Task: inverse folding
């Protein structure tokens, strides 16, 4: 598996925001749902997801940088020899053969030989001395139990499907496919955890999890604030002045709504229970309809003559009332 930094195309000094931005761009580009027939696209998507799983977790990223885990998140039997050599060389130049570094563990010449050759200097290359023999016993062979790494995935869902709840099938890194329940009211960038669907553990330890990030597509006229839905609806001049009953779309379908006489641009109507499930309260929110009065286009000549006659004897200052004069 490639180096995760190279996979995402970021520098080793990249910030978490830069890593996230690079992942989202690549995940959208290579998502199997978007390019199902592109050769190698699914494998590329899995590789990108695995790289993000390492670099998006500060602890795993630090362990990878120290050579303690590989690009797939699996535990290394020994530290990366090259990392050990670099660390030893740096400490030697600093004027000592044993010190505690920024990586949180002490390192000495003894450690260097252990990392490079898999044994202490006191042991021989063959059967080993007293200390070398104990290091190569059954306990060392069995190895530690290490939980498998989590794997990150993403799935794109239309706004209305996320509002009402839906299912999506994703292809996991080990080749299986899995149907994922998208709960009603799921928000953009919300993460769903699938237990045991990540990389397998070592030494009989449990597998990691699959972390599925839901990317909700924006809607052309609905917007969301927690559990509430907001919508701007145009109305005619006669509907505003005289009042009317109009059909208004909601996330569950159109409903009839009464527009009170004398309504104006900016008037807000509340539709109780017509929102979505709030992720904070788990209650269904409301829908707020903001009215916008729209004049005929092109202007109606009879209406223009009426307004001219009306304006000769009547006037009202809307800007002064709004505090703009």
Result:
């Amino acid at each position: 598996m490639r180096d995760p930094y190279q996979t995402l195309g970021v520098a080793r000094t990249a910030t978490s925001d830069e890593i996230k931005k690079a992942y989202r761009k690549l995940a959208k580009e290579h998502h199997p749902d978007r390019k199902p027939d592109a050769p190698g696209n699914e494998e590329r998507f899995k590789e990108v997801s695995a790289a993000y799983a390492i670099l998006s977790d500060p602890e795993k990223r630090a362990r990878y940088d120290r050579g303690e885990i590989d690009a797939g998140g699996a535990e290394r039997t020994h530290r990366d020899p090259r990392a050990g050599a670099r660390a030893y060389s740096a400490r030697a130049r600093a004027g000592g053969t044993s010190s505690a570094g920024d990586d949180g563990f002490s390192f000495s010449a003894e450690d260097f030989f252990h990392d490079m050759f898999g044994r202490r200097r006191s042991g021989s290359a063959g059967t080993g001395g007293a200390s070398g023999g104990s290091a190569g016993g059954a306990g060392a062979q069995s190895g530690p139990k290490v939980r498998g790494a989590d794997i990150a995935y993403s799935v794109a869902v239309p706004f209305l499907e996320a509002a009402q709840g839906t299912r999506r099938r994703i292809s996991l890194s080990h080749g299986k496919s899995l149907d994922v329940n998208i709960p009603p009211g799921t928000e953009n960038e919300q993460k769903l955890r699938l237990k045991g669907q990540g990389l397998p553990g070592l030494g009989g330890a449990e597998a990691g999890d699959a972390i599925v990030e839901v990317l909700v597509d924006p809607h052309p006229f609905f917007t969301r604030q927690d559990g509430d839905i907001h919508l701007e609806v145009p109305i005619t001049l006669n509907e505003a002045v005289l009042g009317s009953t109009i059909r208004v779309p909601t996330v569950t379908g159109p409903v009839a709504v009464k527009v009170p006489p004398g309504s104006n641009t900016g008037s807000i109507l509340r539709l109780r229970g017509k929102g979505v499930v709030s992720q904070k309260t788990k209650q269904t929110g409301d829908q707020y309809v903001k009215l916008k009065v729209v004049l005929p286009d092109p202007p109606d000549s009879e209406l223009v003559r009426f307004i001219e006659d009306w304006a000769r004897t009547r006037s009202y200052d809307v800007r002064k009332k709004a505090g703009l004069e």
Confidence is low (pLDDT under 50) at residues 84-141.
